[in-house]
Amino acid sequence: MSTDPNSGPLFVVGMWRSGTSLLYTLLNQHPQIALLYEGELPVMRPLFYSGRAKSDWLERWDFWNQGPSRHGIDGSKIPPGLDIRSATEAVCKQYAERKGASIWGCKSPQYYDCLPQLAGEFPNAKFIVIWRDPTPICGSIVRAAAGSHYFARRGMILRALLGLEELKRGCDQLARQGTQLHQLHYEDLVRDPAPEMKAICSFLRIPFDSRMLSLEDADRSAIFVDEHHSLVNGKGIVNSARRPDSLTPSANRKIQRYIRLWKDRSRGKWPVYPSRQPDTGVGSPGLFEIWRDRISYFWLARYDSMVLLLYSFLSLGLLRGYRAIRSRGTAVDQLEATSPASTLK
To answer: What pLDDT, in 10s, does the model give residues 138-184?
Structure first.
């Protein structure tokens, strides 16, 4: 493995609505860091199904989540026929070089279920994972659903809960195999950003820069202009957990049952937040609920995979026609989320 600390990508990962966008914005304030915002090219594996990129991979990637156009990627400077690793490196490095940054990579929640696979494809990769109390994660998802097709999808709370389990398993595997991994918590970051950002700089082996403590003058040009990004598009670091609760009683009980399960299994060590066990009246989910949830989660994931295949192989003309029909009558004809399911469901 190379001894150069910047020879591999940096992946910033967390469950949806856990502070990944805030962390991304603060990290990119550092002059040596330039990360893509939800570029997610490594997720688009069908575009590289033969080991080499499809001839129209850049066009399809841009149609999927506007990754190239949001980051000003010049496709003419990228050689044809690259594999997924080389294409990701070429795109990320081109973006970083424009800033003169040495640390390149991507931030996205969509990597939550493929950390070991990313570590295998990028042996020199570094990972920063941010955690958050599951209850405000789910509450934020419900609020975001009011203005986002992506978060309004069926089963989003279940996706988040079992997705957190996937992310934890991935982190544990990275730790066991000695992958460069740093973990932090949203609650600590918003309460006192300085020690958290200094710890990250130590992990990355770069000097701390005080600009990482503020959103002032931050470059947010690659971030989608959506209501659920209003806080990160503001001027100050705000704890979104202070917003009104939007969870139904049944959803809240389900979340508390899973927190009880995880706390019991880890002897109170995970999740770190909430810092205490649920009320004594809350039990773990029963075996039937666990299996029912896992089966539902499996089929939700298979649906997402099918949609990605459609984005990768259907005629672009047909996909554009579908999107035009779907967006007819709306005030803004633009992509609302960084997942194909948000526009084809």
So the answer is: 999 999 998 888 899 999 999 999 999 999 999 999 999 999 999 99
Q: Rounded distance, CA 150 to CA 99, Å? A: 31
**For the chain, how many residues are written?**
345
Task: Please name the residues in contact with 126: beta carbons below 8 A apart, sequence gap of 6 or more.
Answer: 8, 9, 10, 11, 105, 180, 181, 182, 203, 204
Structure letter (DSSP) for residue 47: G
User: Domain locations in the chain?
Assistant: 10-344
Distance CA 58, CA 340 (A): 15
pTM: 0.90
- Per mean pLDDT, which range of 69-73, 224-228, 283-287 is the poorest? 224-228
CATH topology of domain 10-344: Rossmann fold (3.40.50)
| DSSP structure string for 2-41 | ---TTSS-EEEE--TTSSHHHHHHHHTTSTTEEEEES--G
Neighbour-count burial for 204-225, b at 16+ CB within 10 Å, e otherwise: bebeeeebbbebeebebebbbe
